[in-house]
Amino acid sequence: MICLAVGLLYLGFLSSRYNFDGTVFALRVERALNLGDRNSLGELLHPRHLLYEPMGYLFCGLARALGLKFRTVFLLQVMDLCFGLAALALLHQLNFRLYRHRLLAGASTLVLAFSFGFWFFAIEAEVYVPGAFFLILAFHYLIGPTYPEPPARAWTRAALVLALLGALAVLNHVTLGLFLIPLGLEALLYLRRSRTSWTTGLLPALLFSIIALGLVGAAYLGASQLHPFARAWGLVQWFLGPANPNTPYGYQMNYWSVSLRAFPDFGRGWLHTFLAAPYPDPRHGIPLVLKISWLVIWGTVLGLYLRNCFRLFQKETRLHLLFLGWLIPYGLWTWLWQANNFELKIALLPPLLLWGGWVLAREQERSGKSWPAGLFPILAAILLLYNLTAAVLPGADAKNNSDLQAAQRITQLTEPDAVIFIAGSGPGYNLGKIYIPYFARREVKVMDWALGFAAEPFPAALESELGRLRGAGRPVYVLSELLQPGPPLEALGRHHRLQPEAIAQFFQDHRPRLVASLNSHLALFKLEP
């Protein structure tokens, strides 16, 4: 019943916010379905999440075979919704297995369902909810139907299953490779229950490690042979991606935050995982009373845990190690890498909620008081009411997505063979990089990429490109962000060590004519021959 109700809620308010990466996935899957050649199929193999786009390709291909003529971004949203509901069903079963308390088990599941990070990406096209599903599936296998007793297993078969689960985690998102730590602890300490010392676990742990790393290595090696950029850039550059500050576009971007000063950003990222910034205008911020309520509830859970930590470790050592073996290393990672990022923290939600519900249930058993079980129902109600009104409902209305509205205006104002030049730097119409090709179905030239890839220096490379386009008889447009001083041009100049005025002057010299305003801060110009 819980999953049915949540599924109807999710389906009734699918997102129209269309995040950048999800739109990229939709475009590539659509392209691969239409072309089916080696390059288009190879592009589906993203180094940080190898499985998502191939799964999306199969899902969308099945929909086409059944005659369902929806755009791929909608189909990917439906696929993620299915993964989300399956994850919630497994989590609810796990909760009830850990503590036979229906209210607390159901409330813990609803806290996950209504946490902004999980809810948002269950109704968007993105990689994080399928990754959470495979994590919960792994917990389901580890905890087993015979909890609290470890299930009797042939250790060779169990090591193979653990290795497969670990490989699936990595291939869903490379950062989930940290889940190999608790899986490795399971292989080392608990697969051979008849051990006489800890050394008897070395063989299962070694078997697990070899198979898991071998599966992952083989998958990445095969993918690198198929992906066109991997062949061009090399395996290391392709695999590292943004972890390597030197981008292929000729400038640096650094996402590391190895500093205690990043802790406030880390806290904001955690808060955002549960509570949405108001949409479409986040400047209003999350109400203070909700921040305090969230902090009090989780502070109480942590306090109860610290109070009972030694007793819990003595009585349920294996479960304790499983939770801490995932929460601590992955939590540390999300502090060091993009501390304010809430997307990556979604992978922490399932073990956090399993751990939190377990702590509350054991405290209720110890004290004989009923109040600990009431914390998660209160939190679930807060998350539902706030996230629904602040972000989900306005996010379901396409009129609130000004970037999408700009792309749709471009469709109306330009010819099918038109080319549009945009800055492509963060402060500008950054989503235009993908919204214009996918939603407007027009070719886009991203200056932030073109300036880095060009073999000739600026402005000769741009003159050559414009000459080629005009020689082919194609209409050329430019956005006002490339013509007027402002943050987009300044960021572009910093990236490529150019004067922003020189970039603007280049386009001004080609006689831009105003076509129309796209919104309050962006206009479309056509370059006259």
Structure at a glance:
With 529 residues, this protein is mainly alpha-helical. The protein has helices spanning 2-12, 20-35, 38-42, 52-65, 72-98, 102-114, 116-122, 128-143, 155-172, 180-189, 202-226, 228-233, 235-240, 263-274, 288-315, 317-336, 349-367, 375-396, 402-413, 432-440, 447-453, 460-471, 487-496, 500-508; strands at 419-422, 443-446, 476-479, 512-519, 522-527. α9 (155-172) packs parallel to α11 (202-226).
Q: Mind explaining what this structure looks like?
A:
With 529 residues, the chain is mostly helical. It is built from 24 helices and five strands. A five-stranded mixed beta sheet has the order 2-1-3-5-4. A hairpin with a 2-residue loop joins strand 4 and strand 5. The protein starts with a helix and ends with a strand. The model has no long low-confidence stretch (mean pLDDT 92).
Q: Name the helicity range.
A: 55-70%
* Terminal Cα span: 63 Å
Along the chain, the helix and strand elements come as HHHHHHHHHHHHHHHHHHHEHEHHEHHEE
Which sequence of strands runs across the widest sheet?
2-1-3-5-4
Individual helix count: 24
User: Strand-residue fraction?
Assistant: under 5%
